[in-house]
């Protein structure tokens, strides 16, 4: 095993142990460091100790030539900064060549969200006549009603959900616990799934033991975040206007609809589990329809004049 591979694996193991990142986030880190390691191997570099500022800049040029967006390149560079910081802390390196490399500037990107009618269209294409359909309806309702992250959703156990109070306990980034609210539609959808969907899925588990996860796959075991992304993509393909649908789009939708409905931004911050208010402020964009309605309702001369 090469030194590059060993150091990459050690870095990923550290992230998994210390930061409790989701499977999806860890997979991104892993892909980023592996891609850089492959770039180095193609240039006969066998260790990260052989990397200098010119090597990093050549790698960034390589990514630009490959057609990667600035935002993606900035994320990959951030991964490398974390990697080299780790290597220095472990005593593998003494100098950090990333200190001399500037992060590519990226344009601010407003989060994509669904309009209420699009949420209704999404829910309408789910066939609730099957156990999997009942599960999928409950998943979409829960993501939209609570704003939880996909990693938080797949981590839910039966004991974490209290339908009587309409609350669920989730574990956010850094294993921070918080309570999210579900709302009447999500409560109803989860209740139907627990009664008529989950028992059939749980019975398919090979060892016959119910693992206690709330959302199960067709084999009776816990759903993965990748499975959630796939099922949303399946339903989005049935609706031409819902391209690039993801769990995070539903999280954006949750936040946007709350703010457009008049919710205080600090309340939304708490519900989303954001550590800093600045993270939540990106959701203060509003739809043109919402802006127009506020104008019509508030301005004394916005309404049609009488002849």
From TrEMBL:
Protein's GO biological process: cell division; chromosome segregation; DNA transposition
GO molecular function term, any single one: DNA binding
GO cellular component annotations of the record: cytoplasm
Transmembrane portions of the chain: none
Subcellular location: Cytoplasm
Active-site feature positions: 149, 173, 248, 251, 274, 283
Entries under InterPro entries matching the protein: CB, DNA_brk_join_enz, Integrase-like_cat_sf, Integrase_catalytic, Integrase_recombinase_N, Integrase_SAM-like_N, Recomb_XerC, Tyrosine_recombinase_XerC/XerD
Keyword terms, alphabetized: Cell cycle, Cell division, Chromosome partition, Cytoplasm, DNA integration, DNA recombination, DNA-binding
Superkingdom: Bacteria
Pfam families xrefs: Phage_int_SAM_1, Phage_integrase
CDD domains from the UniProt entry: INT_XerDC_C
Residues of the Tyr recombinase domain: 109-296
Primary location: cytoplasm
Quaternary structure, from the entry: Forms a cyclic heterotetrameric complex composed of two molecules of XerC and two molecules of XerD.
Function of the protein: Site-specific tyrosine recombinase, which acts by catalyzing the cutting and rejoining of the recombining DNA molecules. The XerC-XerD complex is essential to convert dimers of the bacterial chromosome into monomers to permit their segregation at cell division. It also contributes to the segregational stability of plasmids.
Protein's UniProt name: Tyrosine recombinase XerC
Gene from which the chain derives: xerC
């Amino acid at each position: 095993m090469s030194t590059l591979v060993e150091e990459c694996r050690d870095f990923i193991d550290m992230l998994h142990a210390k930061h409790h990142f989701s499977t999806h986030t860890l997979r991104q880190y892993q892909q980023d460091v592996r891609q850089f390691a492959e770039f180095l191997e193609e240039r006969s570099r066998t260790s990260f100790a052989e990397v200098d500022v010119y090597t990093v800049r050549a790698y960034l040029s390589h990514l630009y030539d490959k057609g990667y967006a600035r935002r993606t390149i900035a994320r990959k560079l951030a991964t490398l900064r974390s990697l080299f910081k780790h290597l220095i802390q472990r005593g593998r390196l003494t100098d950090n060549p990333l200190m001399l490399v500037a992060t590519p500037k990226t344009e601010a990107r407003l989060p994509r969200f669904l309009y209420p009618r699009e949420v209704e269209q999404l829910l309408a294409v789910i066939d609730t006549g099957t156990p999997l359909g009942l599960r999928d309806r409950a998943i979409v309702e829960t993501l939209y009603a609570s704003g939880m992250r996909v990693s938080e959703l797949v981590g839910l156990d039966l004991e974490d959900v209290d339908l009587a109070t309409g609350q669920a306990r989730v574990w956010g980034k850094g294993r921070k616990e918080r309570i999210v609210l579900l709302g009447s539609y999500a409560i109803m959808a989860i209740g139907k799934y627990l009664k008529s969907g989950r028992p059939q899925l749980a019975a398919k588990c090979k060892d016959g033991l119910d693992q206690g996860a709330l959302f199960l796959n067709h084999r009776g075991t816990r759903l993965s975040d990748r499975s959630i992304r796939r099922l949303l993509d399946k339903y989005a393909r049935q609706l031409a206007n819902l391209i690039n649908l993801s769990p995070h789009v539903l999280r954006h939708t949750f936040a946007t609809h709350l703010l457009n409905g008049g919710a205080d931004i600090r309340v939304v911050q708490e519900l989303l589990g954001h550590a800093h208010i600045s993270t939540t402020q990106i959701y203060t964009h509003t739809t043109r329809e919402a802006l127009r309605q506020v104008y019509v309702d508030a301005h004394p001369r916005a309404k049609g004049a009488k002849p």
